[in-house]
Amino acid sequence: MSATGWLIAAAFAAVAALVGLVVSTALRWGTERHSARLSHLSGVRFAELFLFLDPAQFIKLNLIALLCLPLLSWPLVGTLGAGVIFGLILVMPSAAYRWLHARRRQALQTQLPDVATSLASGLRSGLSLGQAMDQVVRYQPSPVAQEFALMLREHRVGLPLDQALQGLAERSGLHDFHLLVATLGIARDLGGGLAEALERFASTLRRRLALEERIRALTAQGRLQGLIMGALPLVLGWVLYLMEPSVMGRMLSEPLGWIVLVVIAVLEAAGYVLIRRIVDIRV
Questions:
Q1: Neighbours of 276 (CB within 10 A)
Q2: What is the pTM of this model?
C-alpha cells in the first residue's frame, strides 16, 4: 500500500476512534444521568406517595427493559417501532409517577370533606383535636389516613402541631388543605367553635366538588373530541402508509416531507392545547 493509502487509512482510523470515544462518553453520561434520575424517582418521589421501592432493583429492571424489549420487538415492528418502544421505556417511570401523583391528589381532594366531618364529629363527642385526628387515621381510607398518620408521628416526636399541619398541607399540594389548616388555626386562636367551623368547611367543599364533577361531566365530550381529533391524523397517516408505502415513504425520506410532518405536529399540538383550554373550566 502506498504512503497516501496509509495516511487515508490512518485518518479513517483516527476519525473512527474519535467517534467511538464520543459515542461511548455520551452513552456513559446518559446512563449515569438516567440512573441518577431513576434513583431519585424511586427513592424520593415514589416514597412521597408511600410507595417504597429499592432504587438499585428499580434501575436494574429499567435498564434490562431498555436493552431487551427494543431488540426483541425490532424484527416485528422495525427500526422506527423499536425506537418508539425505547423512548416509551425511557419516559415510562416519570409518566407513571405523574399519573399516580395526580390520582393521589384527586383522592385527597375527594376525601377531605369526610375528614373535616370526622374531625367535627370527634370534637362534638368530647375528643381533643389530637384524638379526633387519630380517629381519622384509624377509620378513614388511604391516602388521607397515611398523610394524617405521618403528621401525627411528626407531632409526637416534638414538632409543634401548627408546623406539622403546615407540612401536611405542603405535602398534599392542595389549596383546600391549606384552607383546612387555616380553619383549624383561626378557630383555636380566636376560641370559636371549631366543630361548627369544620362542618361549614366540609359543607362548602362538598358543594364545590359536586359542581366541579358536574362541569367535568358536561365537558367530557369536548375532552374526548380533543383526543380523537389529535389521534385521527396519526391513524390516517398509518393507514395510508400501509396502503401506499412508496408514496407515503417520501414523507420520511425527503426534506419537504419532514417539514410537512413538523407543521402537522405543531398544528396538532396547538389544536389539542386549545381544546383543553376551552373545556378546562375553573370553579
A1: 14
A2: 0.74
